[in-house]
Amino acid sequence: MSVTIVLVLVTFLISYRAFNNPRVFHALKHHPYSEHRNREHYRLLSSGFVHGSWIHLLINLFVLYQFGPIVERIYENAFGVLPGRVLFTAIYLLTIIVADLPTFWKHKDNPSYAAIGASGAVSGVVFIYILYFPWAMLSLYGILPFPAIVGGIAYLVYSSWASKNRNDNIDHSAHFYGALFGISVTIALKPSIALLFAERFINGLPF
Question: Are 89 and 64 in contact (CB under 8 A)?
Fold first, then answer.
């Protein structure tokens, strides 16, 4: 069984439990005030396994299921099967934490702020895919096709703008920083990918 499938199953089970038990939900959510005042730093990680609704959960799991196995295989090919799986798992979990840090610093004295969801880590996985396959064709809701790099840039621009200008209870900064961390850590681990990306981007190679 792939690491991606394990992550999907664990996230589903924990989110399902939290849907039916508000105490579990509130204990696991990203709550900077509690993390800062009570040193409940585990929330920076646990928040990636709880979601606000079935739609929120299923969209994240669907995207992770679509892109996770591809990125997992990339890591296996680059570092070996076992080391690749370990690295993929570690990066996914670390991205949850890193994606939460901007709102931790921003809201650590704000008891009313909270956030949940795996979107930051899922963004990291998607952008690792884009790093390898910039011109692969993706589609929005299976209808509107677009190159991965174009959608990725638009997503980063929107997430950056929305994190500063929207108040819609969505942690847009987690999407933005999760994506950047996924790219950065992959290049740090395998610097040659930067040259591969440049070659594929310039030449318009889909794979």
Answer: no
**What is the dihedral sign for C-alpha 135, 126, 99, 77?**
negative
**144-150 LR contacts (CB < 8 Å, sep 24+):** 149/201
Pair of tokens at residue 8: 């999907």
Which pLDDT belongs to residue 161? 83
pLDDT at position 166 is 62
Amino acid, single-letter form, for residue 102: P
pLDDT range class, residue 1, cuts 50, 70, 90: confident
Q: Which residues pair with 30 in a beta bridge?
A: 115
Q: CA–CA separation, 49 vs 40, rounded Å?
A: 16
What confidence score (pLDDT) does residue 20 get?
A: 94
Calculate the CA 167 to chain-centre distance.
Answer: 21
Q: Report the C-alpha gap between 25 and 196 in whole angstroms.
A: 42
The structure's pTM equals 0.92
